[in-house]
Amino acid sequence: MSSKSTKTEVLDHKNAEALLGGGQKRIDAQHKKGKLTARERIALLLDEGSFEEMGKFVMHRTKDFGLDKEYYLGDGVVTGYGTVAGRLVYVYAQDFTVFGGALSETHAEKICKLMDLALQNGAPIVGLNDSGGARIQEGVLSLAGYADIFYRNTRASGVVPQISAIMGPCAGGAVYSPAITDFILMVENTSYMFVTGPNVVKTVTHETVTSEELGGASTHSTKSGVTHFACANEVACIEHIKQLLSYMPQNCEDDALMLPYEGGQDEMRPALDTIIPDNPNQPYDMREVIEALVDADSFMEVHKNFAENIVVGFARMAGRSIGVVGNQPAVLAGVLDINASTKAARFVRFCDSFNIPLLVLEDVPGFLPGTDQEWNGIITNGAKLLYAFCEATVPRVTVITRKAYGGAYDVMNSKHIGADLNYAWPTAEIAVMGAGGAAEIIFKREIAESDDPQAKLQEKVQEYTDKFANPYRAAHRGYIDEVIYPHETRHKLIRAFKMLENKVATLPRKKHGNIPL
After folding, report:
1. Which residue of the set 172, 215, 326, 382 is catalytic?
2. 3-246 CATH
3. What is the pLDDT of residue 371?
């Protein structure tokens, strides 16, 4: 046998060894839990045959605690690049079959090398997390590895899109890399995230809680808002990632892909003329407005089950990728509270970072009152949304469908904070507050001195309603560019975003602003 063929056999052997990760027994155990392997996940995510692996033969360098007798090629993470729908993407997938996916010095180095390339070449990073945390045997080396990753996550923020899928455990320091990235997806019943696990929680606070209750997909998609998408299984999770990427550009210098649009001449939506109830206190579903305005089946809601009084998500308008923010009258009357403000602010800032125009659909009675909100910082948190809109330089269009009251009118992308175009439907009410509260304050003495205070109150409520509960005073001032018929809204929006497609706006020169965190 020639020396050359022997060397080829060595390579064949090493390739086969690397592909097995921690071995067939552990691969089978992974499958029994309903989980895919790292390589299977990458194969599902990337276009067939496009994956180019890097660092396949990397091994750890640790000699302590018996690790000098246990080596696996790749060291618990598969890294490389490929394409999704023909577009370059960098991806890493932690391999739970190798040391439980625990992060070592070399494991981190592979991820960092990948992130550096993504930043230099301007393409998204997708992390598929499935790890027991830091490799304890390595001590501070593994902690340093995490910090190296966090630093790169932060440097890449706003430069290239970063998506994290949690497909197994993600605990301790491991949670902070996903937390810095743009979007987090979790898989129901097989993934969890927490800073300290159930055992530590029980020791410190005496609370008994399961991993799923403490940090499962349901918990983080409804209670904490940590995760943006809770997916039924890993295949659905990976499909979500592909869909998300379709709305995004490759980097901050790029624009999102414009899809061909073959809409007819008729962009009218007559159903919108009757969507607003006659009773101003009766709810309706803002999602129905969104679905009527955007391209068919193009709306992808983000954070669907968290802070449901505001709706955010991606959609397409005549093939153009846009971000949608809409108050939801069907939940808490669409009022802004702490969670709604932070949810929307984060989404607005992402869209602005990556040149995605914003459509704001407004029906907001104000900010939620109460001690709970005040004591937990509604002022600072509400200001985050205000700050996000004020800072945004992408095309911004607002449509006021019904209520636009008080400071919430200002915050929801008003003309005064830099919106490009502001439309209102004839049903819009733009005022400092609702007619009832306003009449009680303005005409307090007159009502009190009346022979029939209740009748006088109703008379003054009607007077205030006639004067202020409409869009025309704002339109007279130029704060509303046009009062439009609901059925023509889509037609107007298509033209508006087309007109604004070359918008250039710059912020004052500075290192960065100081958002009210």
Report:
1. 172
2. 3.90.226.10
3. 96
